[in-house]
Amino acid sequence: MDTNEKKPLQKVCIICAKGSLEDVYASLVMANGAVMEGIECKVFFTFFGLDAITKKQMKKLHTGTVGNPAMRMPGGLPFPTLLGAIPGVEAGVSAMMRSQMEALDIPKVDEFLEMITAGGGEIYACKLAMDMFKLTKADLHEEVLDVLTIGQFYELADGDRTQIIFT
Prior knowledge:
Radius of gyration: 18 Å
Shape: globular
Number of helices: 6
Oligomer: single chain
CATH class: Alpha Beta
Helix content: 25-40%
Order of helices and strands: EHEHHHEHEHE
Number of strands: 5
Number of domains: 1
């Protein structure tokens, strides 16, 4: 057997800990891409990432404008952090991002969750974060399979050719 033989990725476990529009979508796009490639996928939402799977919050995700060094204005100029503190700017930037995503036919969060699970992916919530934010499973989108401790999630990440991605 050739010891240099390339072995494809078999499983990806994605941890989404941030609730901004761009961070949640990074997790969802990677998860959806994994299931489309036939890679076993498990997504674990913790801390503010729970907003993506909480029924009351998932349609209210926003783009962080203050302290975001990658934020750009039209034309590629850096976005002055001070502008992000002005009332309404963050909502406007978030609406613009949603509009651009819609123009590119990027699914909404709930649609992405359905696509991921339909493709065999699994969605989980973090027990510690759920307890901290006083949430119950009933508060979560129906595609969430279970509420797990991080130890239980790590058990799901076992096996060769597994990657854990933290977003």
